[in-house]
Design brief:
The chain is about 45% helix and about 15% strand. The protein is of the alpha+beta class. The chain folds into four domains: about 240 residues, Beta-Lactamase (2-Layer Sandwich), CATH 3.30.450; about 70 residues, no CATH class; about 150 residues, Alpha-D-Glucose-1,6-Bisphosphate, Chain A, domain 3 (3-Layer(aba) Sandwich); about 90 residues, 3-Layer(aba) Sandwich (Alpha-D-Glucose-1,6-Bisphosphate, Chain A, domain 3), CATH 3.40.120. Strands 9, 10, 11, 12, 13, 14 and 15 form a seven-stranded mixed β-sheet that branches. It has a five-stranded mixed β-sheet with strand order 17-16-18-19-20, sandwiched between helices. It has a four-stranded antiparallel β-sheet with strand order 1-4-3-2, sandwiched between helices. The chain is flat and about 140 Å long.
Length: about 650
């Protein structure tokens, strides 16, 4: 028998030839895993380069548009100053009389009052000759500008004159009227810094930016940051009401080649190769052990010694074969010797010894859902009445909207209950409340306080004041939160709420959760009290401890009739400043101008007043005093 077995083994060995290693079976996947990332990286590199170029161009466009708006604002501010200077009628009277001495006196007065002017000329309709004298000579271009103003009856586009002389200036002209008829033209020459300053301070990007008069071959008024050579061939942005353009070009090679990507791909390929080799080696070892088990079971069948009842399986796909041979080995041991000639067909059918081809999963419970999948994704079901608390009021950093479109006292009271509940659940109990000067703020503040006390909070009401006064109160007093009722710099019919809990501003997801709490009506209950406290004196004392001026200053303060006027005036006076108030009386109708100092037209009066008072600085506040604009002693805007 053993001789026959050896012969069969030799025959089998002689018949076993060829075959492939496990590694070769994995090789296609390995190659695909190595080549595919490289292809992806190459495509990604091209895409990234293209997107980078587009992003750089878009960023340059934003910078150019912002600069064009800034230049437009500078021209508008100069024009506003001239209009205010003409408002007293002295220039019109002098032109109408034709008195040369009167004209000269008015010109000198205007030039002294308005900072940044090189020269002012009051031109009568019959002027036809250039004027080469003075700090800013007027040539034929100036005469042509005056002619166009008289014909149009309105200001014409600003221009740069005296380019060839090497001493260029900003030229502006506007009509001077008396009794509804034109009596002449005001021709003004300004320093170039009003244009070069904003251009040179514009944000840097991968390219170059210029302010140009006269198109591609025109005069470069000023150039921004960047050293890119060549023409500005990407695009141009027109500066409104001028003959100027902001041109820009983007460096096409700024993105470069990202060697890091190739390094990552190379490293990943090496790691993948090592993992594949290790996996192939591990699989080969496991298969060798399972094949040894199969061979051993085959020998047990031949010897009829049973081969044991438990056999370790390394590769799951070999389990059925090992189980079948184990069954054969057991039956061979129990059968009589004559059964050695029985064919495998007499043995128990193979299917009985093997696991079924398809069986239900074991240990996995499937639960039928009785909820809409969308509800499970959002974490909540739709709540009736959500429309009564408009989502549009909840912005990124505050709550803000129109008082006739959802921001009502009822909303404010509900908001107070929600904020108060957050404070109480956070372990706090005291909330400071302040309000700006808007007409709707007292009613909204009162409703907010009702909601806070209904939630169990004690309220420290500091009354009308700017937002910085509330922030100081949060630092100075033992309170756990603060709410400012303010519409900030928004139109008159707006209002809103700025919320601070602990040491953080409630924003983003926190505001979303607050709205949901208000919708669900999840509130704490209590009966809090209200204490009214004047924090102005403490605030001024704190500022005086921290700030010492090197010298006394003369300051013009324009509060825009917002809530910062009185506090700003008292604080600056306590520091030793001479304060000239401008629109510092609180009036929520904002009768003089909109309380937004970021717009040039809202600081025109302040610019003129700073020059008229020969002040050191002008300060403009927005509606709740947390934004400001600065005017220098020449009457120019100090841009951030």
């Amino acid at each position: 028998m053993f001789k026959k077995k050896a012969e069969e083994t030799d025959a089998a060995g002689n018949g076993a030839h060829g075959g492939r290693s496990l590694f070769t079976f994995q090789l296609p996947t390995l190659l695909l895993g190595m080549v595919a990332p490289l292809v992806v990286v190459l495509i990604a590199q091209q895409t990234i380069s293209s997107h980078t170029r587009q992003a750089d161009a878009a960023a340059a466009r934003v910078v150019a548009e912002s600069l064009a708006t800034r230049i437009e604002g500078e021209i508008a501010a100069r024009r506003s100053l001239l209009l205010l200077a003409l408002a007293d009628g002295a220039a019109a009277t002098a032109l109408d009389s034709g008195d040369e001495s009167a004209l000269e006196a008015v010109e000198q007065t205007l030039q002294k009052r308005i900072g940044g002017l090189l020269q002012v000329r009051l031109l009568s309709p019959d002027v036809s000759q250039p004027d080469p004298g003075g700090a800013a000579p007027m040539g034929y271009a100036g005469l042509d500008m005056a002619r166009r103003v008289r014909e149009a009856g309105r200001p014409v586009a600003a221009e740069i004159h005296q380019i060839k002389s090497g001493a260029p200036y900003l030229a502006m002209a506007m009509p001077v009227d008396a009794g509804g008829r034109n009596v002449g033209v005001l021709f003004s020459a300004w320093q170039m810094r009003f244009l070069s300053g904003p251009v040179e301070r514009s944000p840097a990007f991968a390219g170059r930016l210029e302010l140009v008069q006269g198109g591609d071959a025109g005069y470069v008024i000023a150039q921004g940051p960047g050293s890119l050579e060549g023409p500005l061939n990407d695009d141009r942005v027109q500066v409104a009401d001028t003959i100027w353009e902001v041109g820009y070009a983007v460096d096409s090679g700024a993105g470069g080649t990202d060697l890091l990507l190739y390094g990552i791909v190379g490293g990943s390929a090496l790691v993948l190769l090592l993992l594949t080799l290790m996996q192939a080696r591990s699989m080969a070892g496991a298969l060798r052990k399972d094949m040894g088990t199969l061979v051993g079971l085959g020998e047990s069948i031949l010897r009829r010694d049973g081969g044991g009842t438990a056999h370790a399986v390394r590769v799951k796909d070999c389990a059925a074969a090992i189980a079948l041979l184990g069954q054969y080995a057991c039956e061979a041991r129990q059968a009589p010797v004559a059964a050695a000639t029985v064919t495998p067909a007499a043995v128990r059918p193979r299917a009985a010894a093997m696991a079924p081809a398809s069986t239900p999963s074991q240990g996995l419970e499937v639960e039928e859902l009785d909820h809409d999948p969308a509800e499970l994704l959002t974490g909540r079901q739709a709540v009736p009445g959500a429309g009564e608390i408009p989502a549009a009021l909840f912005r990124a950093y505050d709550i803000r909207g129109e008082t006739d479109k959802g921001l009502t006292p009822a909303f404010a009271e509900l908001l107070g209950r929600g904020v108060g509940s957050l404070v109480m659940e956070d372990g706090g109990s005291k909330v400071a409340v302040a309000r700006d000067a808007r007409l709707s703020s007292p009613e909204l503040s009162a409703a907010l306080v009702r909601g806070l006390t209904a939630a169990g909070c004690d309220v420290l009401d500091i009354g009308q004041g700017p937002t910085p006064l509330l922030y100081f109160t949060l630092h100075d007093q033992p309170v756990d939160a603060g709410v400012m009722v303010t519409g900030s710099h928004n139109p008159v019919n707006y209002n809103g709420f700025k919320i601070v809990i602990g040491d953080r501003v409630l924003d983003g997801e926190g505001l979303v959760k607050l709205r949901q709490r208000m919708i669900d009506g999840v509130f704490t209950e209590g009966n809090g009290g209200v204490e009214r406290l004047d924090m102005v004196g403490d605030y001024i004392e704190a500022v005086m401890r921290e700030v010492q001026l090197a010298r006394p200053l003369k300051v013009v303060v324009d509060a825009g009739n917002g809530s910062a006027g009185q506090l700003a005036r008292e604080t600056l006076e306590a520091l030793g400043c001479e304060v000239v108030p401008l629109f510092c009386d609180a009036d929520g109708a904002f009768p003089n101008h909109h309380p937004d100092p970021s717009q040039p037209e809202n600081v025109a009066s302040l610019m003129l007043e700073v020059q008229a008072q020969q002040a050191d600085v002008g300060i403009a506040f927005d509606g709740d005093g947390d934004r400001l604009g600065i005017i220098d002693n020449d009457g120019g805007n100090v841009w951030p």
